[in-house]
Amino acid sequence: MPKPDALPENGYLKSLPVDKEKLASVAKIKVVIRKRPLNKKEIAKKKEDIISIEGASNFDLTEYVERHEFVFDAVLDEDVSNDEVYRETVEPVVPAIFQRTKATCFAYGQTGIGKTFTMKPLPLKASQDILRLMNHAYKNQGFQLFVSFFEIYGGKLFDLLNDRKKLLMREDGKQKVCIVGLQEYRVNDVEMIRELIEKGNATRNTGTTGANEESSRSHAILQLAIKRLVDGNESKPPRPIGKLSFIDLACSERGADTTNNDKQTRIEGAEINKSLLALKECIRALDNDQTHIPFRGSKLTEVLRDSLLVTLALS
Ligand SMILES: Nc1ncnc2c1ncn2[C@@H]1O[C@H](COP(=O)(O)OP(=O)(O)OP(=O)(O)O)[C@@H](O)[C@H]1O
């Protein structure tokens, strides 16, 4: 995990509520699996639940299925609540964003697996914790919280909090990515954040695929940015400190699920799969500590180039 740049030592850092042990356990990439229950369609078709988690009881299908074992950083069973998902994934990282860390949390998997269901509650819970820290441990330290929400659809960026206004992505000489025109809202209460998240979700591009009636056809990226006043001066623009990005990825579909899709849905699917592959390549390169990370593989990875170092992936 990259060491966050130290903030000026002025005494208060010592009292930061950073749980170093928990944070170290997040490492560079943490992969958490969440098993979802069978859905109505699967129950109607009398499908069997063939995934078992160590320690959990399940049907004994050993006679019929091949056994594969996989190991992850954490595995959450189908009866685990969204609160527990938050505690296992995002919560340990929240204090670190006050120390110049930029982290990303996303859910990955094929359509209908529960990505949106899992991702939706996380930003609000994180905002609650950020505000709590700003109002207590970091009180009067000049920290401010900003929310932005945009989507990437067909390789183009749209502002979900500004009538889907088209946005441009630029890179400066230092390869710092800037999204020109993106509206950032300064927020200081949870209700305001809830409204912004709801507004963004309602504006998002969804459609129906062969496998999910309300399928995400775009990557939706919600960012919680911490900034800090320069010398406590309200009239100067605050300085960016850290960022938490939440991505609800568009669905990846298996070939077998795409047969009933129309032409537009298939074109969307190809674009989506291309960007998911680029994301996978970046994660693999990061995990192998490679010096070259192929961020330019897609708009998605370009946009996230500064935030992909601490990654919490749910599947
Ligand atoms: N853990 C869960 N518990 C209960 N219901 C769930 C769970 N996960 C998913 N679901 C339900 O399954 C359906 C599909 O979930 P969701 O839309 O989140 O999938 P998705 O992976 O985001 O799909 P897509 O990629 O097509 O957008 C939804 O009706 C959702 O409420």
Q: How is the secondary structure organized here?
A:
Layout: H1 20-26, E1 29-34, H2 40-44, E2 74-76, H3 82-88, E3 102-107, H4 115-119, H5 122-135, E4 143-153, E5 156-159, E6 165-171, E7 177-180, E8 185-187, H6 190-203, E9 206-207, E10 215-216, E11 219-228, E12 239-248, H7 263-287, H8 299-303, E13 310-314
Parallel strand pairs: 1-2, 1-13, 3-12, 3-13
Antiparallel strand pairs: 4-5, 4-8, 4-11, 5-6, 6-7, 9-10, 11-12
The structure holds adenosine-5'-triphosphate.
Adenosine-5'-triphosphate binds next to helix 4 and strand 10.
Largest sheet: 11 strands, mixed
CATH architecture assignment name:
3-Layer(aba) Sandwich
Low-confidence stretches: 1-17
Q: Compute the number of helices.
A: 8
SS class: alpha/beta
Total beta-strand segments: 13
Oligomer: single chain
The CATH fourth-level homologous superfamily? Kinesin motor domain
What's the CATH C level?
A: Alpha Beta
> What's the overall geometry?
globular
What is the rounded Rg?
20 Å
User: How far apart are the termini?
Assistant: 21 Å
Helix content: 25-40%
Average pLDDT across residues? 79
How many domains make up the coordinates?
Answer: 1
Bound molecules: adenosine-5'-triphosphate
Strand content: 15-25%
H-E string: HEHEHEHHEEEEEHEEEEHHE
Structure summary:
The strands form two sheets. Strands 1, 2, 3, 4, 5, 6, 7, 8, 11, 12 and 13 form an eleven-stranded mixed beta sheet that branches. A two-stranded antiparallel ribbon has the order 9-10. It has 315 residues and is an alpha/beta fold.
Can you characterise this structure?
The chain has one domain: Kinesin. 26% of the residues lie in helices and 23% in strands. The chain contains 8 helices and 13 strands. Helix 5 packs antiparallel against helix 6 (190-203). The two termini are 21 Å apart. The model is unreliable at 1-17 (pLDDT under 50). Adenosine-5'-triphosphate binds next to helix 4 and strand 10.
